[in-house]
Amino acid sequence: MGNNDNNNISTKNQTSSKYWRCLVFSILLNFAFFGYNLYFSVVDDGGLSWSRGAAGEAEAVASISCSGHGRAYLDGVISAGDGLPVCECNTCYGGSDCSQFSPSCSADADGGNPLFLEPYWRQRAAASALVVSGWHRMGYSFPDGTNISPELERHIRQLHAVVGNAVTEGRFIVFGAGSTQLLNAAVHALSPGGGGGVAAGVVATAPFYPIYELQTEYFASVDFQYQGDTSLWIAGGNSSSEKKNLPDGKTIIEFVTSPNNPDGKLNEAVLKGPNFKAIYDRAYYWPHFTPIPAADDGELKIFTLSKLTGHAGSRFGWAIVKDEDVYNKMLMHMQLNTMGVSRDTQLRALKLLKTIMAEGGGRTIFDFGYQTMKSRWEKLRKVVSVSKRFSLQDVSSHYCVFSGRVRESSPAYGWLKCEREEESDCYGVLKAAGIIGRGGSVFYATDRNVRLSLIKTRDDFDLLVDKLQKLVSAEQDEEEGGGDGNGIEQHVANVTEYQPLRRRM
Amino acid sequence: MGNNDNNNISTKNQTSSKYWRCLVFSILLNFAFFGYNLYFSVVDDGGLSWSRGAAGEAEAVASISCSGHGRAYLDGVISAGDGLPVCECNTCYGGSDCSQFSPSCSADADGGNPLFLEPYWRQRAAASALVVSGWHRMGYSFPDGTNISPELERHIRQLHAVVGNAVTEGRFIVFGAGSTQLLNAAVHALSPGGGGGVAAGVVATAPFYPIYELQTEYFASVDFQYQGDTSLWIAGGNSSSEKKNLPDGKTIIEFVTSPNNPDGKLNEAVLKGPNFKAIYDRAYYWPHFTPIPAADDGELKIFTLSKLTGHAGSRFGWAIVKDEDVYNKMLMHMQLNTMGVSRDTQLRALKLLKTIMAEGGGRTIFDFGYQTMKSRWEKLRKVVSVSKRFSLQDVSSHYCVFSGRVRESSPAYGWLKCEREEESDCYGVLKAAGIIGRGGSVFYATDRNVRLSLIKTRDDFDLLVDKLQKLVSAEQDEEEGGGDGNGIEQHVANVTEYQPLRRRM
């Protein structure tokens, strides 16, 4: 055996030994990885334990495809087919995955479902997700003995400070199941009460949100009564300085909606003075819908999550109250009516507000909301502005403390008017054309006006604009062609023709 | 070089080659593990994506140690120290981890916080966890246009079928924010209404839950009035067949609580006949508290999640209604009052009911609840039975359709009575001895009775029994020693002495 062979043997021995060490090391690493994976899959599954299953279930439901025209929810009706919750489709879409569009279906611009904000939350799935333990807040009260979450109240105050739409410093805050519950709580609290005195009169200025009357009449209290339009309380119908004389001990409670529902106007109280009290319904007083000229510093203003975050189903609102006596009365109302607002709702609202505050200093959702509404108004005006048959309300411009500049309103609703004298039933005109709005008579105006909801899903808005466009086009064809008065009939024929499925992923 | 060397070289070559192949394989395996871990930690983190963060946050809060004498919640006030929610401690416990027991602190047996069920849910953390997406049910309605979850309604009917405590077949179900909201909804619905007729009279039989009067009077409607005890409506105060004659058009609405709050009796309506209507408050009609002799098949019965699962903070209840007209009126009440119950609450309630139904055919929670209450009553009776100074209400026995045997009641409350003639203020007697109960006068009985809550945490119950034991022991010492009437004073001295911290992990 020569040196070369010995060297070769020696080298091979060293190589073999090196492979052996590498192999041992590599195998140890294999065991380490294996053990790590085993640990986390059996014991701790990615660092989670008891929440893992629920999280997986929620993600599975969220990933159910509804063709971009609907969504499935965790508590939806279960499909017999796959045991999963069904897709709940946008109007005019159907089928198990919401991909079937019905061309002859009417656009639904009736209700105020604020789904225009749904994309905002879908885009922030991680930030806005909430995990609720089985033992979360089982008790009746928070540690301070109240049924009002201190953390949620704190976030509400923070948000108002960011937006600048309401003074909260030194004010009391009451929670309610939507502003709906707080409206009547406020009426109770502002009424002199005691049953023996003169019942307070509850009034509002047409057009106004009908709940004020319906609710007040339903609760038919000995302490307050719905007493009509504010104009009835103005002598000569001219100005608030010429109010009618009130009977002794009479209080008038005025609902002021600002921005107004249905027309978006930044209203002020009409009746002012001793014994005239105002409840400011500020549901729409957010940059999505209006410039913010100033922070509301009034006695009593009510807000709702519905029109801030879009979570109408959560039933959460709050009142900001100056007077401590009024505050205490509203608290008592909440206690006797429902023992406060659900702790589940308060937890959800807190999560949503935290998500808002964590982005852009709390401003991003308003940029999102405003851009969406602005864009929708541009499209709407583009269609309606060429029409002589229809008109939309003017929108005002104001300096906005939130955006730091003058801007236009972008109201939640179009307040459409039929201009042709013979078309006093504008609701009927639109209905025949495949658009379901809400007739002005619902708001104590006339059906010459129709409220069109602009805050629903994109599908809803696109369909509304589509149908309006057809109406306006028919109007223009009529004018150009001399017309034979059959514009409506022709339009009905038009909308029943086949339209290709619209796909949006 | 001989054959041996060649063989050796050959063997070594083969070995080296084998090591090399093993090494290559092992290295590839490492890459595979690495890639797998990288994928799941960066992209999918254990199979989860958007819910991961929220799940981790919830688990972190749940794992905050409060010494077994409290708990931290996701929406609790944030501690300045560690940025985590603070521990919320059981009565008489304090400190940042609830480990500080205050010996001189009074036992709080006042409220009906149903935390006795908290351990049931903690033990089922995985089954009862709920993940809510940021876009969950933003809209006002379910697909059927109502604000009542079909899945939740379905589970409620299933549960009643398991327990056998209420007929739901062919009945309508209305949801409310706790039974609290439904009580007044029912009064509205059963009143003739219209404002012009005779106001319905609302009555109940003492001792009764004061909300019936407080709520009815607060809502001071023109359609109904609180009109006192049922005995006022019985001619000669003898039997329901000798009711006083009602004025024309007069309706009497009787609240019947069964089992009763405060004394646990299985009451029946006292006033029956035309124009006498009954609202059965069945809050406690579950096996935790009572045998179930039969399924309630009455016109209108109301249940609450509070006393079924213990989730009083969720504010969820339901009414089971026979008459469709009454049902529609209650729906209208819910719509005008709050536009239904929060979708967050309905989702939570569904999760809780699903958790119940998934175990033991829906029976396990009732075994848990009954065993807990039975054990507590045994301890309570053991202490009180040797006393001549105090007595507890008798509990009745009935055949129970749920358990298939005769069993005793295990009421939510002890209805303690001071037997000594001079101790007509039993509430004061107990208060001086470090027990805060709820005086009988709150329930339109006298303060000779005191309601003691037996449904709170184990800490609360143990403390109550502890203080009662001391009272009874002092009584016996007094009797044995001839006594000098200083039993109470001695007891007060006793309870202020140092007591070792009680630890339960």
From TrEMBL, chains A, B:
**Segments passing through the bilayer:** 20-39
Q: Does the keyword Nucleotide-binding apply?
A: no
Q: Which SUPFAM superfamilies match?
A: PLP-dependent transferases (SSF53383)
Q: Which cofactors?
A: pyridoxal 5'-phosphate
The record ties this protein, via Pfam families, to: Alliinase_C, EGF_alliinase
Domain (Alliinase C-terminal) spans 107-472
Assembly and partners are described as: Homodimer.
Protein known as: Uncharacterized protein
> What organism is the protein native to?
Linum tenue
